[in-house]
UniProtKB/TrEMBL annotation:
Keywords: Hydrolase, Signal. This is Non-specific phospholipase C2. The keyword Signal applies. SUPFAM superfamilies: Alkaline phosphatase-like. Belongs to the bacterial phospholipase C family.
Length: 525
């Protein structure tokens, strides 16, 4: 069947945006923002974290308690209403591709429904984890329970229509943040996680146009899932957060594009601060407070934008319908069996906050308002799309998706000078979890993915039995030690190769650490 004329027009416009974007000779920020800091938290929906902020600002598209989901379960009313009693969550709710389809479209799994009914969260959670999990996903935090967010939402901008890029789990969505595609991934692909995803990223566009970027990591830099970032030429872009972030900020040395990564594994000495269940949201709030206060005291504050978002909703309820129409595939790659997903709809809405002295107090950003396309939405590809605009990058858009995604530079253009009344400190959050981290717990799915990356960096990923060891036997305590050693070996080998004069386009390929300690070889990208 022939495409309708307006569809042809839409696709032609996307093609023009994707290709005809090379009018500038070199990049230079076009406005006051010279430093963009990106922090991606884990696995919480907008309503779960920020929905009750509507009590403080009625213009936020949040919740009032009338929202509900049907449920069929013994001794449970036929409808579960959304409450404000969120607390420590363990175990982790469902957020696989199939689980999300059930949550968004209900038990019928009819993906053709428009708008999406968003009425399957309670039932899917009950089917997976019983009544307690159903109640967990149907509750959100009162503003005072997430006091850091309460302050940031009141002082800066909250985006109440920002969606995950893919209706799936962590890694596919994190891929979109810096590259506008997951290269066809809709779930954990051990081979791709080990070999690295090949797509071009915003990091390369920034680097190639003479601007700077840096990764401030705590456990392991998950951006190394992008294969190209493993090249020797980028090895000095990686910094241990605890040793460098505050120093770089205090001395005005933060790069143009800074990505901050969290503690992804939960230990007694270094609690996880990524908000991924079963981690304590209190630790995530402390971490964001620290990042904000570090930036606020930096001489670069007046030229800084901090973007806080979440990779995906983690199985928690959200009442805003997931966009199912007019979403372009990034690159034409179709996802694997059994779903053969065409990347033509988005994931569930997630919390997103924009922080800068150039943002008016109490701003609520409802959406891109039909720009650049009538169907455009804020989603993770909005980050590279906005970076391209703010930094005047001459390179083409990365994919059709970031060419389509809404951009948020407008929120920074409503003032003629930076604010001087931004708080220097944020309030202390409320401790939620009782007790300490369980270091003997088995790894979560996300942590297993990170461990597969650690194995690739360490040269162990081809060893027989390692995948089973990671997925079935490795504890958090063992994982922390293994990850720390892997990162240390990889970077030591990389710096050694650079000193030897190895071509910087190449990638260090380690020999297995579990069998030998011999020298690394060099792998061509």
């Amino acid at each position: 069947m022939a495409a309708k004329p307006h569809h042809i027009h839409h696709h032609l416009l996307l093609l023009l945006l994707f290709l005809l974007t090379t009018t500038s000779i070199s990049a230079a920020p076009t406005g006051p923002i010279k430093t963009i800091v990106v922090l991606v938290m884990e696995n919480r929906s907008f309503d779960h974290m920020l929905g009750w902020m509507k009590r403080l600002n009625p213009s936020i598209n949040g919740v009032d308690g009338s929202e509900s989901n049907p449920i069929s379960a013994p001794k449970v009313p036929p409808r579960v209403h959304f409450g404000d009693g969120a607390h420590y969550v363990d175990p982790d709710p469902g957020h696989s591709f199939q689980a999300i389809r059930e949550q968004v479209f209900g038990p019928g799994n009819d993906t053709g429904l428009d708008p999406a009914p968003m009425d399957g969260f309670a039932q899917q959670a009950y089917d997976q984890g019983g009544t307690e999990m159903a109640m967990d996903v149907m509750n959100g935090f009162r503003p005072e329970m997430v006091a850091v967010y309460e302050a940031l939402v009141g002082e800066f901008a909250v985006c109440d229509r920002w969606f995950a890029s893919v209706p799936s789990s962590t890694q596919p969505n994190r891929m979109f943040v810096h590259s506008g595609t997951s290269h066809g991934a809709t779930s954990n692909n051990p081979s791709m996680l080990a070999n690295g995803y090949p797509q071009r990223t915003i990091f390369e566009n920034i680097h190639d146009e003479g601007l700077s970027f840096g990764i401030y990591y705590q456990d392991l830099p998950a951006v190394l899932f992008y294969r190209n970032l493993r090249k020797l030429k980028f090895i000095n872009k990686f910094h241990a957060y605890d040793h460098t972030f505050k120093d770089h900020a205090a001395n005005g040395n933060l790069p143009n594009y800074a990505v901050i990564e969290q503690h992804y594994l939960d230990s007694k000495n270094k609690p996880a601060n990524d908000d991924h269940p079963s981690h304590d949201v209190y630790q995530g709030q402390l971490f964001i407070k620290e990042v904000y206060e570090t930036l606020r005291s930096s001489p670069q504050w007046n030229e800084t934008l901090l973007v806080i978002t979440y990779d995906e909703h983690g199985g928690f309820f959200d009442h805003v319908s997931t966009p199912t129409k007019g979403v372009p595939s990034p690159d034409g790659i179709v996802g694997p069996d059994p779903f053969l997903f065409e990347f033509d709809r988005l994931g569930v809405r997630v919390p997103s906050i924009l922080v800068s002295p150039w943002i008016k107090k109490g701003t609520v950003v409802h959406g891109p308002n039909g720009v650049p396309f009538l169907t455009s939405e804020f989603e993770h590809s909005s980050i590279p799309a906005t970076v391209k605009k703010l930094f005047n990058l001459s390179s083409p858009y990365l994919t059709n998706r970031d060419a389509w995604a809404g951009t948020f530079e407008g929120v920074l253009q409503r003032r003629t000078e930076p604010r001087t009344d931004c708080p220097v400190q944020l309030p202390m959050p409320v401790k939620i979890r009782q007790g300490e981290a369980n270091e003997e717990a088995k790894l979560s799915e996300f942590q297993q993915e990170l461990m597969q990356l650690a194995a690739a960096l360490n040269g162990d990923h081809l060893l027989t039995g390692l995948y089973e060891r990671i997925t079935k036997h490795m504890t958090v305590r063992e994982g922390i030690a293994y990850m720390e050693n892997s990162v240390k070996r990889f970077f030591e080998a990389g710096f050694s190769a650079k000193r030897m004069g190895v071509d910087e386009e190449q990638i260090v390929k380690m020999r297995p650490s579990l069998t030998t300690r011999t020298s690394p070889s060099i792998d061509h990208p």
